[in-house]
């Protein structure tokens, strides 16, 4: 009986292993996805240009600080923004303080002040140097969020120069950063490396920063809608190189800064008003209550709402600042 020979004809192209075909499809999908990310990076995610600078600039030793001043009488009111931010975070508060001299500043690291990370000690010294530059002996300090933390730190270090404190959703009272926030700060530092930044900017980081900024703004304003002018400013000013370096450095240092401020609360006898939203998702209500309880001469002002009180309820902030400018005679409640 003849033995059957195996079929030696070459395989047809359509008989190629399915795995190779799948790999080709996956590779094509990756290329398309990467192209879409780059397109999104330069369309939806493209960061807007910085607006022209307004206000004045003071050279304070090795640090240049930009500030916006409105003339007036009586005790000056100095307004300190949070993390991140600019002087314009108080743009709705200062018009309500007409007649009072107000100074809103870009903290060192942000906006049109010198950029990059500045340790808290250098920032507090810069605040003191700015008061000297403006010939201010004593002021009311209004601090929002991390700006409230620094206002407390300044009051502990220079109590003779502070007439009153208005602490708006201040980050203290035992507050600590979480893992997600620290991881985000580390990612920002990585993307700022000289060898990484140009490639990341050209391919994906603008879209990533835009998404992160929009998400953060929504959380900060909740339950109120995000104000378009704030979002535009956040994208144009705060999502850029040196501002991001300042944000990351401050976020990673914040736990130690807050712990140090908390230890000093019982010694800060300056009349204070603590304003806190009950729905604040950035600084929980309990922290505002702890700050008020820890200060010897504080009044607690609860609000319905979220974190962005200077923009959503500027009337409340302005009234507290006016009260402090009238010697801030508050009794503990």
How would you sum up this structure, described in words?
By secondary structure, the protein is an alpha/beta fold. It has one domain (23-333): Alpha/Beta hydrolase fold, catalytic domain (Rossmann fold, 3-Layer(aba) Sandwich). It is built from eleven helices and eight strands. The protein has an eight-stranded mixed sheet, with helices on both faces. Helix 3 links the parallel strand 5 and strand 6 (162-168). The chain is elongated, with a radius of gyration of 26 Å.
Question: Layout of helices and strands, plus pairs?
Answer:
Elements: H1 18-42, E1 56-60, E2 63-70, E3 72-80, E4 99-105, H2 120-133, E5 139-144, H3 146-157, E6 162-168, H4 179-191, H5 197-203, H6 205-221, H7 228-238, H8 241-264, E7 272-277, H9 285-294, E8 298-303, H10 309-312, H11 314-325
Parallel strand pairs: 3-4, 3-5, 5-6, 6-7, 7-8
Antiparallel strand pairs: 1-2, 2-4
Helix pairs in contact: 1-6, 2-3, 3-8, 4-8, 6-7
Q: Quick recap of the structure?
A:
The protein has one domain (23-333): Alpha/Beta hydrolase fold, catalytic domain (Rossmann fold, 3-Layer(aba) Sandwich), CATH 3.40.50.
The main sheet comes to: 8 strands, mixed
SSE-based structural type: alpha/beta
Query: How many separate domains make up the residues?
Result: 1
Poorly predicted runs are: 329-333
Q: Summarize model confidence as the mean pLDDT.
A: 89
Query: Briefly, what CATH class?
Result: Alpha Beta
Strand order of the largest sheet: 1-2-4-3-5-6-7-8
Rounded to the nearest angstrom, the radius of gyration is 26 Å
The H-and-E topology, N to C, reads as HEEEEHEHEHHHHHEHEHH
CATH architectural label: 3-Layer(aba) Sandwich
Strand fraction: 15-25%
* Helix count, DSSP H or I runs of 4 or more residues: 11
Helix content: 40-55%
What is the first-to-last residue Cα distance? 110 Å
Large-scale geometry: elongated
Number of strands: 8
According to CATH, the fold-level topology is Rossmann fold
Give the name of the CATH superfamily: Alpha/Beta hydrolase fold, catalytic domain
